[in-house]
Design a protein that fits this description.
The chain contains nine helices and 14 strands. The chain has one domain: Ribonuclease Z/Hydroxyacylglutathione hydrolase-like (Metallo-beta-lactamase, Chain A, 4-Layer Sandwich).
């Protein structure tokens, strides 16, 4: 065989591979554990941390979108590279360190079991212990947002935090008449709200829309998904962002098709109006958004695209 430059290089590569491989190694056991799910970025002088609570995958419910066929919904999920027959939901809370206050938005699923319930763990991994949280603000009272308020023993997970809730949300879920007249499928939601908050009703701050929670953070009307659903505008210097929680489920589905009505939206038309209003504002003013149900780290920008909006993840802009 003639020796050429190609055969020399091939032989060298093979020898190097054999040297690196060395003797056969025992396989490491599979741990099933993930790395800590947090992502830091800056808004002005504020440090913002996206906190991954986990991902839930369940069978696609019939009629998941009230005004679209199941076939069209499955096709929309497949278009994103997601299983067409599954509902894949990501959960991401948000923390903001203003330099004076640590503010946490929502609490995640808590002890729901499975691959969710990681907000407190990931906040600690990011260097903020539960006792360091000064203000715990909520977008609304669905279980995947309030399940992590208390631990299994009933104690507050964030023991030193002032609890701040949307006034309209509290008024709805704490209304006994509304609970008594609610469909059976909703009564569990009322009961969970009471379990999580009723024993501290006198200490909870009920927040009005368009008022500051702390300097630089303002509650924004975003109802429709629930009666008191609230977004939060976060401003520092000449930069701003919004934590928009559940104005969409997966924004790749519902920002692109803002007229679609998810079964989770309690007032579908109001939810559509809110979605369009806030996405229009974000697109026009180039406001960074954090969604609760976008793929982690769930933050980026929207641009107008025909009748809908394209959500573009921002992984590195202003990242620490």
């Amino acid at each position: 065989m003639s020796i050429t430059r190609r055969t020399v290089l091939a032989g060298t590569a093979a020898a190097a591979g054999a040297a690196l491989a060395g003797p056969a190694l025992a396989k490491a056991p599979m741990s099933g554990q993930q790395n800590a799910g947090f992502h830091r970025f800056k808004i002005g002088s504020f440090e913002v941390i996206a906190l991954h609570d986990g991902v839930a995958v369940r069978d696609m419910p019939k009629g998941f979108v009230r005004n679209a066929s199941d076939a069209d919904v499955s096709a929309a999920f497949a278009e994103l590279g997601l299983p067409a027959d599954k509902l894949t939901i990501t959960f991401t809370a948000l923390a903001v360190n203003t330099g004076d206050k640590v503010v946490l938005f929502d609490a995640g699923n808590g002890g729901a079991g499975g691959p969710v319930g990681n907000v407190a763990k990931n906040l600690a991994a990011a260097g903020i212990q539960p006792g360091d949280v000064d203000v715990h603000a909520f977008s609304h009272f669905h279980g995947d947002h309030i399940g992590g308020v208390k631990a299994a023993d009933g104690k507050l997970v964030f023991p030193n935090a002032e609890i701040v809730v949307p006034d309209a949300e509290w008024a709805f879920w704490m209304d006994d008449a509304k609970m008594n007249n609610a469909p059976e499928a909703m009564k569990g939601g009322f009961q969970l709200v009471r379990k999580q908050f009723a024993d501290m009703a006198g200490k909870v701050r009920r927040q009005s829309w368009e008022k500051e929670v702390v300097p630089g953070i303002t509650a924004i009307q975003a109802d429709g998904h629930t009666p008191g659903h609230t977004a939060y505008l976060i401003s520092s210097g000449n930069q701003q962002m919004m934590f928009v929680a559940d104005i969409t489920n997966h924004p790749g589905i519902f920002a692109r098709r803002p007229e679609w009505q998810a079964i989770f939206d309690m007032d579908p038309q109001r939810a559509i109006d809110t979605r369009k209003r806030l996405l229009d504002r974000a697109a026009a003013d180039k406001i960074r958004l954090s969604f609760y149900h976008a793929p982690f780290p769930a933050t980026g920008f929207v641009v107008k695209d025909g009748a809908g909006y394209d959500f573009q993840q921002a992984l590195w802009q202003n990242t620490l």
